[in-house]
Design goal:
Length: 116
């Protein structure tokens, strides 16, 4: 199973390297369209290889997906935490009640009575 995972990772790496080599030409990224940039006076642009733009877009998309999913699952995590606290509270209460039930009895007989 471990070798299959390594094979899959290696094939993905080879695909990414091939995409990077095929898209080495520089592209110019602009923050605003040229007409709007001329109107506002803010003309920010940067030249990067196309594969950097592609990989950065993928990374940002994955990051946004993780954050979105983490926020979406918040209610489930908080509910599970609340149920866990409730379970531990009930366990403490059961332990206390068993202690009261067997108070004054022999410990061995109390243990045998609990397991029967």
């Amino acid at each position: 199973m471990r070798y299959i995972r390594y094979l899959i990772i290696a094939s993905i790496a080879i695909c990414l390297i091939v995409v990077a080599l095929a898209n080495r030409n520089a592209v110019t990224l602009r923050l605003l369209p040229e007409d709007l940039a001329a109107l506002t006076g803010y003309t920010f642009s940067i030249s990067l290889p196309l594969f950097v733009v592609i990989f950065a877009g993928i990374a940002v998309g994955i990051l946004l997906g993780f954050v979105w999913e983490w926020m979406r699952e918040h209610k489930h995590r908080s509910e599970a935490s609340q149920k866990g606290r409730e379970v531990s509270k009930l366990k403490r209460e059961v332990k206390r009640l068993k202690g009261e039930k067997h108070e004054g009895k022999d410990e061995v007989l109390a243990l045998l009575e609990d397991h029967s």
